[in-house]
Amino acid sequence: MAVFHGKLLDAFFIRPFYKMMLEKPITLKDMESVDLEYYNSLQWILDNDPADLDLRFTVDEEVYGVMQQAEIKPGGSSIPVTQENKREYIDLVIKWRFVDRVEHQMHAFMTGFAELIPKRQLQIFDPNEVELLLSGIANIDVKDWKYNAIYKGEYHGEHLVIQWFWKAILSFDNELRARLLQFVTGTSRVPMNGFSELQGSNGPQKFCIEKWGTEKDFPRAHTCFNRLDLPPYSNYDLVRERLIQAMENTEGFGGVD
């Protein structure tokens, strides 16, 4: 009803929720900003041979204080996770974690939502745009943002590339600022008490810019750490141009981890 009447929600949902609204697949990278420890475990399995872990196609979950085991595919308790089927295992774990456990609730929510906003109209948006549609764009205080930023990898507040970065931010309208914040942190929302209380996946985590790559690279983001990897571009126009391209093509070249 809030969207139908043009009202904004003072609420925050995780990125997979917006993807579920659009019926888009949820990936391992989406897990990183939600549960870093869980993500690291699945990433290790992806990067290594899981044979020694003696895993099966099952997951453990606590139900009313009792630990239970659930199969994530028929007969999963007798199917070992191997080098050959580990990608399927990871995909099914992610599906169980985000989709299967709330399937009925999500179906009820989307049924009601579709009565007001038809699915075909919603699907013209990407997940970032859906967040802005639901929650709107808060006025972003660039001075507070800059004051609470930290730098790594040879960058510092007086570095020319960093000065160009903040000059670009000042040149953006509020919507573009929100999209950049969304690109780096996973949400366009600023904490009630400002950027000093920005949260990462493991608690308080300030906005960070780290030197990375070459001028040929695009900026990339690590949403669990609120970190922007910014290449050492040679001029202001290139900094501004590449920031906009990174925001607009997140899915295209994998600019977000």
Question: What would the keywords be for this entry?
Answer:
alpha/beta; single chain; 257 residues; two-stranded antiparallel ribbon
Concise summary:
The chain is 43% helix and 12% strand. It has helices spanning 15-21, 28-32, 36-47, 86-98, 103-116, 119-122, 127-135, 142-147, 160-171, 174-185, 236-248, 250-253; strands at 58-63, 66-71, 150-152, 199-200, 203-204, 208-211, 220-222, 227-230.
What does this structure look like?
- The chain has 257 residues and is α/β, with parallel strands linked by helices.
- The protein is 43% helix and 12% strand.
- The chain has helices at residues 15-21, 28-32, 36-47, 86-98, 103-116, 119-122, 127-135, 142-147, 160-171, 174-185, 236-248, 250-253; strands at 58-63, 66-71, 150-152, 199-200, 203-204, 208-211, 220-222, 227-230.
- The strands form three sheets. A four-stranded mixed β-sheet has the order 3-6-8-7, with helices on one face. It has a two-stranded antiparallel ribbon with strand order 1-2.
- Helix 1 crosses helix 7 and helix 9 (160-171) packs across helix 11 (236-248).
- The model has no long low-confidence stretch (mean pLDDT 86).
Order of helices and strands: HHHEEHHHHHEHHEEEEEHH
Strand order of the largest sheet: 3-6-8-7
Strand content: 5-15%
Number of helices: 12
Summed over residues and divided by their number, the pLDDT gives a mean of 86
Mind sketching the topology for me?
Elements lengths: L14 H7 L6 H5 L3 H12 L10 E6 L2 E6 L14 H13 L4 H14 L2 H4 L4 H9 L6 H6 L2 E3 L7 H12 L2 H12 L13 E2 L2 E2 L3 E4 L8 E3 L4 E4 L5 H13 L1 H4 L4
Parallel strand pairs: 3-6, 6-8
Antiparallel strand pairs: 1-2, 4-5, 7-8
Helix pairs in contact: 1-7, 9-11, 10-11
